[in-house]
Amino acid sequence: MRPSGLVYLTEDLEPSAGFYRFVPKVPGRLAEGGALFMLRVPGRPDLRRGVPLGERFAVEWVPIEHPDRGHDPATGRISGVHDQGIAAGGSRFTRLEGCFAADDAIYFTATNGGSHAAGQVFCYRPQEDSLEMVFQSVPESMLHYPDNVCLSPRGGLLICQDSPDGRQHLWGLTPDGGLFPFARNEVVLDGHAGFKGDFRRAEWAGACYSPDGRWLFANVYAPGISFAITGPWREGWV
């Protein structure tokens, strides 16, 4: 798929958030302005719960008439853009965080969405204007609270975990929905580089691959550590 110049945005709000598309006047020159839209699934105003795994929905986009009215200084509310989209018929998500553009799909996470309020991963396909939930966390999956996400050059999704129970992993998700742990945060420092403490409860964040696919870079949020991980990758999806 050729680059379209469109920009897709998640919204880290709860209990209600929107998924957005920005259409620039001039592709690649965002500062020249454009139009903002919120995703709408006809007949499904609320996608936070009760969405069957693997079900695919047709998508529409509703305009945000005043995207500059996100913050109300008088009340301190920051949901002005969201409220406009919902009033126009947009669909509700919750705590949208990670977003990754692949060749023919946009993947994004709802960290505390789903029937168990433990996480959802969605896939939007621009060419089809369709939305599919490709993963929903259940208690036995162990992947509570998916956060940042990226697509591996080998075809799997790599998901950073930000779990409230302190079990922080990098997870792999195969194209057929198989889930497997890739790495676990076991960072305990004894003063190295001036840092001391137990950081095993800190979330993973910002994972991405080098252009040649040989190196995976990932961060532990606190105290702020970046890891460079290499293969061999031949046997796996990540």
Which key phrases capture this entry?
globular, mainly beta, single chain, 4-stranded antiparallel sheet, 3% helix, 238 residues
Q: What does this protein structure show overall?
A:
This protein is mostly beta strands and 238 residues long. Helix content is 3%, strand content 39%. It has 1 helix and 18 strands. The strands form 5 sheets. The chain has a 5-stranded antiparallel beta sheet with strand order 4-9-8-7-6, with no helix packed on it. A 4-stranded antiparallel beta sheet has the order 1-2-3-5, covered by helices on one side. It has a 4-stranded antiparallel beta sheet with strand order 10-11-12-13, with no helix packed on it. A hairpin with a 5-residue loop joins strand 16 and strand 17 (215-220). The chain is globular, with a radius of gyration of 19 Å. The protein starts with 6 loop residues before the first strand and ends in an 8-residue tail after the last strand. The model has no long low-confidence stretch (mean pLDDT 93).
Helix content: under 10%
User: pLDDT below 50 for ≥5 consecutive residues: which ranges?
Assistant: none
Describe the biggest sheet?
5 strands, antiparallel
Number of strands: 18
Distance between the termini: 22 Å
Query: What structural category do the secondary elements indicate?
Result: mainly beta
CA-atom Rg in angstroms: 19 Å
Strand content: 35-45%
Strand order of the largest sheet: 4-9-8-7-6
Question: Which word captures the global form?
Answer: globular
Order of helices and strands: EEEEEHEEEEEEEEEEEEE
Look at the structure and give the mean pLDDT: 93
Count the helices. How many? 1
